[in-house]
Amino acid sequence: MSAPVLLNDSELVMLLAILRLGEEAYGVPLCDEIASVTGKSAALASVYKALERLEEAGFVASRMGQPSAERGGRAKRFVRVTDKGLRAIDETRTALNRLWRDVPVFGKRAKT
Amino acid sequence: MKQDLVLRVALWMIEAGSSRAESEGFAGDLVEMFAAGRSCWWCLGQALHRTASVSEQRLRSLLMPLWFCIGFVFLYPLWQRLYAPAAARLLVQGRGAIQWPGSAVLEIAAGLLPALLFVWVGVFVYALLRRRSLHITPVVAFLSLNVGACVLFIAMMMRLHALRNDLRLLSRADFYYPLVHGRFSILLFFSLFGAVTVWPRERSTIHRRRDVVFLLSRFGMLRIARCLGLVVMLVPQVSAQAVPLQASARIMAADGKPMEFDVVSVRPNHSGAVAMEIGSAPMSDDLSITNMPPENIIQWAFRIFLNDQIVGLPDWATHERYDVQAKVSEADVAAYRKVVDPIQRVPMLQKILIDRFGMKFHFETRELPVYALAVDKKGMRMTEIQPAIGPNGMKEGGGRQRGRGRYTSFGQPMQPFIDALTVELKTPVVDRTGLTGFYNYTLHWTPEDGKPSVEDAPSIFTAVQEQLGLKLERTKAPVQVLVIDHLERPTEN
Description:
The complex is a heterodimer. Chain A is mostly helical. In chain A, 56% of the residues lie in helices and 9% in strands.
């Protein structure tokens, strides 16, 4: 049995954002999604760099869409999470949940 | 308008920096974000960020081949231990058996072949190491192998150009010892690096898990690797045995055979005199040696100036002296006089030793310390002249004067000076100057064991640098050693 894969925070954020967007995940909405959820703006170049790294690791796969006029005749590059990526997300969640299990809620303790 | 221009620059940067498939999605996203209200400068910033990221990725992908090539080039001395002796024997035997320019071509082949095979083996090792991530096809494999060959060939042509296209000036030092001679290390490195970086693109992630043996067998790579391995194993053997050991003349006689002296007279000299002589008068048909021990005759015959390079001489050969008179036949006089390169007469002298002294010999290559003579950074300071034309219509080699701590050249080429330095330093000197002209100069130095001809003269190393604009560098190189297997007192005339 292979060791569980633990994703780092930026990888996890990117994969979760792709999962949230579903079939419509590509550069622009990914930037917006990450910015809206995390509250931090995401640079398009950084998003692409992270996507390439994830694709190289086999966690995501990409396909080109149809060219459109509003993009200057350029196609969208859609991405989706692969089975390997899904397993990695699951294993990371399990590991993080185990870590959180016995950690008290600091806000409540402060009140008491 | 200005915004359009900045956006165009940003898009051009992205599209020029990577392939269409890689850049299309990002460029389209940038156009979309610009239309959604992002500023043109934000787009330019993203394009710069993206370009830097792609460049970094590409440089990072070159790191692996870079370190591999550096490491592999360091293995070349080990490789040479397999090849250098065989290649050296091939050269020595070929020099005697093959006429110039064939002998020079042989020199190039014997020098390049080990290097070429080394590069090819390097390419295969690299391919096996990166078998999971490289995409191999027979065509690309063939091209990659030949990139190394082309780089070596082009470099050799450049070297020849530096030597004014005179093949005779090529020496084995131009091919061997990359760790000592930086130029050849760099050449080997670039050959290998070129070969492994034109190797096909990285395999896509999906196909990475394929079995390398399946791939290799599918594309016939195993067969190619096996054949190459066989060649690598056989070449040293073939090159060692291909040319039989013999010493034949390079000057061709009127009958088309290698020229030999027609009449040879060898007599012991019991005069007790110290002085000895060797030479032939201009436009003569003979060679005269007076009061010379066989040891010195052998040195002349094989152009060896150091006793260290001759092994196995019997004691009598170092002190018993002989006179030798040799003449070519009437039919060969014209060809004998036309000889441009005195080295071409050397095999004729070797023939006297073989016939009259019963000499049997072979060569061995040993790694010995040498001095490399090269042009100093500040440039050569000798005066180049146009040499006089001799009675045979050829350029004359001028003259020289030697004394204690003094050497004067009157329009001589470099070789006599190299020989003189070899004797003075008691160490072989390799000519790496690339100077092919005729020069006037005077050199004064303080000999190690004597009084100089000029007061306060510097050491020979400083003198060569300051007075001639050349430099002597201590290094190591494979040096041929003549091993005498048999030598007997000469037979009666």
